[in-house]
Amino acid sequence: EVQLVESGGGLVQPGGSRRLSCSASGFTFSSSGMHWVRQAPGKGLEHVAVIAYNGDDTYYAESVKGRFTISRDNLDNTLYLQMTSLRTEDTATYYCVKDAYHTGRGWFDPWGQGVLVTVSS
Amino acid sequence: DIVLTQSPATLSLSPGERATLSCRASQYVASYIAWYQQRPGQAPRLLIYDGFNRATGIPDRFSGGGSGTDFTLTISSLEPEDFAVYYCHQRSDWFPTFGQGTRLEIK
After folding, report:
1. Helix (H) or strand (E) holding A96
2. Tens of each residue's pLDDT in chain B, 107 residues
3. In chain B, what residues touch A110 (CB-CB under 8 Å)?
4. Which residues of chain A are within 8 Å of residue B95 when distances are taken between CB atoms?
5. Beta carbons within 10 angstroms of residue B104's beta carbon
6. A45 and B55: CB-CB below 8 Å?
7. Do the Cβ atoms of A44 and B101 come within 8 Å?
8. Are A41 and A91 in contact (CB under 8 A)?
9. Which of B43, B49, B96 sits opposite A111 (nearest CB)?
């Protein structure tokens, strides 16, 4: 069974940093593109970042470009999202998502349970 | 970025009725549309990919259609567990985007 388990959420002050982790199991992690998708409270889904299977290609939403970095450790089956210069509008549940393709250009399945990041003073 | 517009924003129906949800893309996306269901307090789950393909374990009352810029998700006969929020998603562009969602509520 494919499992994606996020961790690292919590309360952060504006301007602060946080690193989210996603531990993957049940599939060949090193062959899968991976994503972070977020959802602000009561709002819709926003794609944040994608990384190809080997880490060579990454893309970011304009809203986080230059502040967030997606990375992966294929030996440890872990996906990361390093978030810096956090703003109140970054408050959201962050989902780790597996892509159907190694490039990260496919559909999203499955999704992790999500981790809440709250940016507030 | 490609903008996806879902309609209606809210759909009120009764169990056993047929639901039709729409998703319109601002540009041509071929059949590269997926649909997801999100129940309260849960993560989204994949229902349909590439326009009309049902994901593993999805009941056949769910079906997807359309191509180009206009797409539909149809639920043939609503079950109580189908009342949720539904999102469409395009993977045609280099950066994926989602629609704003349609809330399917019990009438």
Report:
1. strand A92-99
2. 899 999 999 999 999 999 999 999 999 999 999 999 999 999 999 999 999 999 999 999 999 999 999 999 999 999 999 999 999 999 998 789 999 999 999 99
3. 43, 45-46
4. 47, 50, 59, 61
5. 21
6. no
7. yes
8. yes
9. B43
